[in-house]
Amino acid sequence: MSEKSKTLWNPMVHPGVPGSHSTLEIIKGDGNYVQNREGQWLVDGVGGLWNVNVGHNRTEVKDAIKAQLDELEYFQIFDGVTHPRVKELSDLIIDMTKPEGMARVMYSSGGSDAVETALKISRQYWKAIGQAQRYKFISLKQGYHGVHFGGASVNGNTVFRTNYEPVLPGCVHIDAPWLYRNPWNCEDPEELGQLCAKQLEAEIIFQGPETVAAFIAEPVQGAGGVIVPPANYWPLIREVCDKYGVLLIADEVVTGFGRSGSMFGVRGWGVAADIQCFAKGINSGYIPLGATVVNERVAKGIESCENFSGAVMHGYTYSGHPVACAAALASLKIVQDEDLPGNAAVQGADLLTKLQNTISEFPSVGEVRGKGLMVAIDLVTDKKSRTPVDPMSGFANQIAAVALREGVIARPVGTKIIISPPLTIGTEEVDKMVAALLQGFTEVDR
Ligand code: PMP
């Protein structure tokens, strides 16, 4: 067990209740494994934090970082200044987002930044084309968009804003396309997709279409519990947005670059967003980096504005950091060369099936769901009513603790256990994760 730091506040825990903190201390990583302080190698079932997509300790990425440090460790890109890596990465990302037709990239240091950029740029777009009254955002319950004030305002779980309110005005939330729990008790995917799209349309009309800037959502909700929408959901959402001119922002911070089994989450449904937010898998977390990508419509709207509303008065000191861009170029080469989206689809399907076959019969397992290498186990006190376990009961933590002892890191998040390993995993890691979780349920869910 690790010594706790007396000088550190960890994210997402109460600093005054140390008993609620994880005891894990990670000192090394290699491939799909990380080593704890006690020297045990563990399957990294959380992929760092949904982000170490190419695995730990990859020579290609480390060499690119070292070479970049030798060449140029940092220079800004404000006011039109540039450097080679940021230009190469921008070209690569725009190329990779074909056929979605994205056109321009803005950089930042992570997912919350990328979301903030998307929200601000979408408002700027409407100002630039003379519709400044379009300022509202519609988002989904259970959605997670980071922790800045913009992201906290569109987040669909109040725990991320309660302590920091008041948040942005003009942010409203509608129901997620969640087959397992939805207000209509709808169990038919096709019908649920239609109901959700109709709800979006009704909300746009209620707010006044001339006031709505954008709809923002994750292609597959991650932190909210891996909520995978029905097949018709994204195409219908795109139609509704188009009907009222509302911008569609896909928060691809988790799904971007392969995790959901296609290169981008929305691509899995054949849909193109107007704005995409990236971070995490963009360079597998070796150095902080976020990116926000806009399509031709948004780019042209802002670029062709002849007054100050066309000036992008947004950006960060670390926008396009050369070392982070070099890490991204190396990491994305691996993603493409090794077809990691394809591996995520194959291994994810195997993991999901094996988990479903192994643990579904336990009384506390409500549902095991997933897409690609995003998998969640939804824990219930009663299978029939689908009543979630008490998030304060520590039930998910107890199962994760057994899995950890058995050599696998899985992440307890309230009433769910989430699994999001590197996209490089194979059958060996899949089987270890299934066995460790089976042991967890066997011991805890008696
Ligand atoms: N958007 C989504 C969909 C996320 O999952 C996350 C982080 N898990 C963020 C935004 C925020 O990213 P970061 O923690 O890098 O700020």
UniProtKB/TrEMBL annotation:
Keywords: Aminotransferase, Pyridoxal phosphate, Transferase
Entry keyword Transferase: yes
InterPro entries reported for this sequence: Aminotrans_3 (IPR005814), PyrdxlP-dep_Trfase (IPR015424), PyrdxlP-dep_Trfase_major (IPR015421), PyrdxlP-dep_Trfase_small (IPR015422)
One Gene Ontology term of the molecular function aspect: transaminase activity
Gene3D superfamilies: Aspartate Aminotransferase, domain 1, Type I PLP-dependent aspartate aminotransferase-like (Major domain)
CDD domains per record: OAT_like (cd00610)
Family: Belongs to the class-III pyridoxal-phosphate-dependent aminotransferase family.
Protein name (record): Aspartate aminotransferase family protein
Source species of the chain: Amphritea atlantica
